[in-house]
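2024-03-11 09:14:02 INFO receiving multi-entity request
2024-03-11 09:14:02 INFO entity count = two
2024-03-11 09:14:03 INFO echoing inputs for audit
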Amino acid sequence: MTSLDILFGAVGLITAASAVLAVTTHQLVHAALWLVVTLGTLAGCYLVLGAELVALVQLLVYVGAVVVLVLFALMLTHAPIGRSPEHSSSGGQRIASAVLGAGTTALLASVLLPALGGEVRSTRAGDTQGIAVQLFGSWVWPFELLSLLLLVALIAALAVSRMPATSTEGEPK
Amino acid sequence: MIHLWLPLALVCLLAGAGAYGVIARRNAVLVLIGVELILNSANLLFVTMGSVRGETLRTGHVLALFLITIAAAEIGVALAVVLALFRSRGNIDLSEPGA
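2024-03-11 09:21:47 INFO inference complete, emitting structure
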């Protein structure tokens, strides 16, 4: 065990536990808050792996923006505060999805772990300058295309949310 | 130096938890939380491979940055769709038949 192993194990354990809690808790707002813990500790994992820039972007975009969007959506759809058993699915569906989730984990593990799991590798820490050079050099056109994608997504979200309600009751809001 | 099985095991666990969330949840926003977990497991795989493989293009880290941006765009549009659904149906329970 190296020191990076111990660090990653500690942070990754919190990530895994909060991810499981985020998808199993019966309180809607708690699910979003556990998602904050998952994404925040995942940024810690990126730090341990030596990807400072990705960790900071993860904190800014995911923890800062995406989770706020999720919380806003929960509020605007009148999510109940506290336990809401009417939102949880039946026992049979939960068992079936637990089997499927465990199957996904086992399938991925059976592919990834024998292929790469035995290796001990050094990470390239503090490589932000190299990433920046490549990002604005080799990858500059995909990068510019992404700004176009963000603009399209912004306009699309605006258009979808301004769409008049077409329900038969016809109660415009 | 790091043993590669640690991040890879976390990738598998996150993907499994996300798949569970997508299938088991009835609230549309909570399904989106599961989708976010799956996206993040892919992102962790990108970062892990980018960190341990020595190649000049820094593909893993750059693609991880791109994936975070695409996920932000995705969640914006998806939540707008969820809100439109809520306005026209009055609930976002995915187990209910559509109007």
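2024-03-11 09:21:48 INFO post-check: The radius of gyration of chain A is 21 Å.
2024-03-11 09:21:48 INFO post-check: Chain A touches chain B through 97 residues (CB under 8 Å).
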